[in-house]
Amino acid sequence: MRKIIDIDFGSTRYDELVQLRYKILLEPLGLKFLDSHRHQEINYLHIGCIECLDDKLIGGLLLAPLDNHSIRLMQVAVDSKYQRGGIGSELVTYAEKRAKEAGYKKIVMHAMLSVVNFYEKNGFHQEGEIFEEKGITFARMVKEL
Ligand SMILES: CC(C)(COP(=O)(O)OP(=O)(O)OC[C@H]1O[C@@H](n2cnc3c(N)ncnc32)[C@H](O)[C@@H]1OP(=O)(O)O)[C@@H](O)C(=O)NCCC(=O)NCCS
After folding, report:
1. With the CA atoms of 25, 27, 32 and 33 taken in that order, what torsion angle do they form, in degrees rounded to the nearest 10?
2. Rounded distance from Cα 87 to ligand 1 centre (Å)
3. CB 99 within 8 A of CB 109
4. Where are the domains of the chain?
5. CATH class of domain segment(s) 2-105
6. DSSP state of 72
7. Which of 20, 92, 107, 112 is at a distance of 20 to 30 A from 84, taking alpha carbons?
8. What is the pTM of this model?
9. CA neighbor of 127 nearest in space, from 119, 135, 74
10. How far is the CA of 83 from the centre of ligand 1 (A)?
11. CA distance 106 to 100
């Protein structure tokens, strides 16, 4: 059994989420997680998925407020052993609920082209031109809440 939880910035769970994000998202691209990133995340919402059997964090994401209307979904990561089991979609659905409760009307995100299909399956649609950042191609995706 698994559960989706809110994670407090600076907690042990937050450190677990940083490590998971590093392993799944940053390390494969040769990127580092810097202390300056940690400071930027104080005001973000941090969400995780726990496997209840061993209390292990197996997925997570961030929500970064942009303005009163829009919030940005970032760094959705699911442990490789658990991918394609519905956890990513559960995390996104929970994030949408939290964003809506907090009064946001729109979620925006930058998806790597390889996972655009995942976000389309979750009700996002592509907006504008694809673009490149640090050699990686992204699509801007949005969902009205
Ligand atoms: C992308 C990711 C978050 C999806 O989470 P997940 O738990 O594996 O996805 P789900 O099981 O909820 O997938 C739902 C549907 O989305 C689509 N999908 C999921 N992962 C996909 C992928 N990597 N590529 C293309 N489509 C994908 C599939 O249609 C899937 O349904 P299906 O398995 O019945 O075909 C996860 O695989 C992951 O962490 N990948 C590596 C990191 C990454 O690329 N993150 C996105 C950063 S923008």
Report:
1. 50
2. 9
3. no
4. 2-105
5. alpha beta
6. E
7. 107
8. 0.96
9. 119
10. 7
11. 8
